[in-house]
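Quick check before the chapter quiz. The format below is the same one you will see on the exam, so make sure you can read both the input and the output lines.
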Amino acid sequence: MGETTKRSAAHAEADAAGGGGAAAPATENLGLLYPPAGRDRDYTTMQLAFIGGVAEAAATHGYDLLLSPCDSDRDPSFLRMVGLAGARRVDGVIVMEIRQEDDRVERLTQEVFPFVAIGRNHRADAVGWVDLDFAALAGGCVRHLADLGHRRIAFVNRSEQLFDRGYGFARLGHEGYTEAMAELGLEPHAYLCGDDLASGEKVVERILAGDPATTSLVTMNEAALEGLYRGLTRHGRSVPRDFSVVGVAASPWAEQVSPQLTAAEIPAKEMSRIAVELMVERLRPPGAPPRHVLLKPLITLRASTGPCRPVPGSEPESEFPDFDLNF
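Here is the expected output.
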């Protein structure tokens, strides 16, 4: 089957699926619903990597990409893109920054509009999705540190705003960390942190004020990574000599800090490619059952972790027996 024939078949399916079954002209566009997660409502470096990856993958299938920053089904951008405020602009959409309760996913399901997700919640199970196993990755980071002898392990998550809004990666990462710490019989200390350098420095201060004997941390906040390093240096902690850091981060972030970060890498380009492939499958009749792709990258060992060296004065003093000496 030639490319033109395949595209025509895909558009026929899209026409039947959009707007509750009403016919609609093919647009030859895919939509990306992706709200910015930066502190000032800007796109983070990681988000830009996903945008570029989706655009590149879409182009290989003959589609252009239309980006919407919407985080709600009431957003005018959402309504325009899916044709709820005039003619629809795309044949299908990829939804990102999935929340545990996400009205965009609910509305797309209700309208029978073709979509797939990068990320997941209970409603997204009815369609295709690709995601990282954030719980397992956070747990794996904890166990890596425990294998090196660390027992005081903190967790630096994403911002309070993202966590409170139910973003899946933040919630799942927290669950994976706390479960791993419980299994190892260790006390969890989890912290929320803004996505910027200054917040990284501040969270280190909070960690060491709460438990000065902390010797390591797991982070899912790559945007605050440089701030974490600076905060540790400011408090006289050398990485990895007397403090270890491991995280979930894309390789550009992990490799630009010194020492380079031991990390489970976020494969943005691979996830983008898979999401577009799932979208094309969704648009091509006959409708195949939805595929769910859960990735669990291995931890890449670099230079930021090492054997635990307890902070001087943090270990209990040795007990010596009392001697009754008579001279």
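If your answer matched, good. The two ends are 103 Å apart (CA to CA).
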